[in-house]
Every structure is written in C-alpha cells, then in structure tokens.
Amino acid sequence: MISWFPLAEAPVPEGGLFDFDATLPLMAVQVVILTFILNKLFFQPVGKVVEEREGFVTTSHKDAKERLAQVERLERDLKAQLQKARQDAQAVIAAAEDEVATLYKTALAEAKASASKLREQARADIEAQRSVAAAALTKESRQLADLIIQRLVTI
Amino acid sequence: MLLQTLLPLAEALPASDPELVVEESHGLEIGQHFYWHLGQLDLHGQIFLSSWILIGALLSIVVAGTRRMERKPGGLQNLLEFLWDYIRNLSREQIGEAAYRDWMPFIGTLFLFIFFCNWGGALVPWRLVRLPSGELGAPTGDINTTVALALLVSLAYFYAGLSRKGLRYFEYYVEPTPIMLPFKIVEDFTKPLSLSFRLFGNIMADELTVSVLVLLLPLFVPLPMMFLGLFTSAIQALIFATLAAYYIGEAVHEEHG
C-alpha cells in the first residue's frame, strides 16, 4: 500500500526492515482506541481516587491545623487567666499583710500609749504619796524635836 | 582466548556465510513478516498478534487493579497509583499546569504501551510460538508501529496548539525572530522522524544483539545484554513519552509579556 522503499516494491510483499504498509494506520487507530479505553479504565478512576485522597489529606491537614490553633489559643487564654489569678492572689496576700501590719502598728501604739499613761499616773501617785509622807515625817520629826527640847529644858 | 572458544561454534553452524545463516537457520529473521491480507491491504500479522497479547496484559492489570479501589491503597492499586502519579508528574512538568489534564491520558498511554511492548518483547518467550514466516517480538521493533506513534504525536501537538490558541499557534514559528521560520518548519518533520527512528533503532538493535548472542553463545552470555536491553527499553519508553509531552507543551505554551 504505502510502500516507497525498494524492498517492498514488488506486488507480493517481500518484507524488509522498512516495509511500510497498512500496519501503520491500523496501529495508530489501535493506539487511539487504547488511549480512550485506558482513559476510561485507568486514568479517570485512579485520578478520582488519588485526587479524593489528596483532598481528604488537605482537609484533614487544615482541620488539624485549625484545631492546633484553637488549642494554642485556649492555652494562651488559660495561661493569661492563670497569670491574672496569681497576680490577684499576690495582691490579696499583700493587702492582707499590709492590713495586718497596720493593725499591729495601731495595736502596738495603743498599748504603748496606755502603758506610758499608766506609768505616768503611777509615778504621779508615788510622787504625791511621797510628798505627803515626807510632810508627815517632817511634822513628826519637828514634834519630836520640840519634845526633846522641852525635856531637856525641864531637866 | 575468546576467539578460540568462538571459532569451533562458528564452524559448527550450518553455513559459514553469515547472510545464509540469517536466512536458513531460523535463528535470525530480520525483515521477514507474517503477512495478513485484508482486501488489498497488507498487514504485519506478528506485530498485531503480539501487540494484542501485550495490550491484553496491560488491560487486565489495569482492570484487576481498579476493580475495588480503596482510600488506603494496597497491592495492584498501589502500583497503578504510582504509575498514575508518575505520568501525572511527567506531563505536568512538560506540558504545564494549564493543559496537562487534557493530554495526560495520551502521554500515559504512549508510555504504558511502549513500555509494555518493549518489556514484553524482551521478557515473553515468543519463540515458543512458531509462525509460518517471521516471528513474534516487540511491536515497537517494527518501523510501522513507531512511525504510527510518532505521527500520532505530531497530530497531537498540532491539535493541541491549534485548539488552544487558534491561528495564533503559528506565531510559534516566528517566535523569537522570523529567521527561525525555516528551522521550525524543518523541525515539524524531524520531530516524528527522530521519535520513530530512535525507538525503532533501539528496540531493533537490542533484539538483534540478543538474537546474535543467543545464536553464537547460548545460555549465560547474552544475559547481561538482556538486562541492558530491559534498561534501554524502559528508558526509551520514558524518552518517547517525555518528548511527546514536551512537544505538546511547546505547542500550548503561552508567551507572557
């Protein structure tokens, strides 16, 4: 048929390496048909499965990423809350300590004041009694002295 | 040393003239075909027979592997998905993100068909089947098959360019400068020529080398050459598919700016 090589010029095909004939177009048709068959049987179904899986993996990956982000956000929130709670507790403790210190100081001052007042009073009492006693002693000693002088004079 | 071992073997052959050996011994049958006649048309029957067997093998693997598809692949499905991924990467790299989906089945079919033909030609013990004339072998070892494939590639890239860009496709011929016009026109002829002859030459040469070696020194000596042949066969399938994808990619490529 399409034979232009000298080896195949004879009416009865002699063969040869470069023997072109109807094998060529039929083989082309066969390969085109095979392309369509393989497209239906192989490329489309396998492609569908692979792409579905790729989609699944991508979605799962995105989901996981989102969840991770959420977890991180929650962790951050909780950490912040914990920090705040700690600070609050610290503040409460400090306030309580301050209050205690103030109370202690007030109580101490009051106690000191009352103690010094008592001491002053006691000292004043002692002073008064001593002066009374001294006065009585002076009077008595003068009487005694008078008595002694009288006796001596009478003798 | 080697010559001394070779000489008695050569003398033991039925005829000393190598041409005659080729014709008579049925060891080497180059350029002989098993003709089928379809009306006025002549067909190379052995090519169709072996290609049908190999296409059957390919299709049965595909059908068996895609029968029950699961999200977690195993066995044959895994292999098919690997092939699919391989072909997708190949066509995406060469054709580009925009158009590769349309051409992936074509590139994949070329790759799988050529790969199966090449390996089938090397691995299947075709000699067990006796034909009245010629012998079964790799369908890609016949110039008709490779030219058919190469012409399909030519048609494909013309169609790809024209359908994507319309008549603007022909801007490609004068793209950097109009001086390129004759070279680009010549390229349209050299592309199918080089594609077909590269594949044909490699497979043919490999089959010839192995047959000659088998004829001269049977059993273990041709084995390394056979392994080399398997390697070349796989590489040739890859080269053909890659170049086809590259030509299509060149045709659909959009110049920006």
Automatic annotation (TrEMBL), chain B:
GO cellular component, one term: plasma membrane-derived thylakoid membrane
CDD domains in the cross-refs: ATP-synt_Fo_a_6
UniProt cross-references to Pfam families, sorted A to Z: ATP-synt_A
Topology with respect to the bilayer: Multi-pass membrane protein
Listed transmembrane segments: 43-64, 103-123, 143-162, 199-221, 227-248
SUPFAM superfamilies: F1F0 ATP synthase subunit A
The organism's place on the tree of life at top rank: Bacteria
InterPro entries: ATP_syn_F0_a_bact/chloroplast (IPR045082), ATP_synth_F0_asu (IPR000568), ATP_synth_F0_asu_AS (IPR023011), F0_ATP_A_sf (IPR035908)
This protein's UniProt keywords: ATP synthesis, CF(0), Hydrogen ion transport, Ion transport, Membrane, Thylakoid, Transmembrane, Transmembrane helix, Transport
PROSITE patterns, per database record: ATPASE_A (PS00449)
Protein family: Belongs to the ATPase A chain family.
Designated name of the protein: ATP synthase subunit a
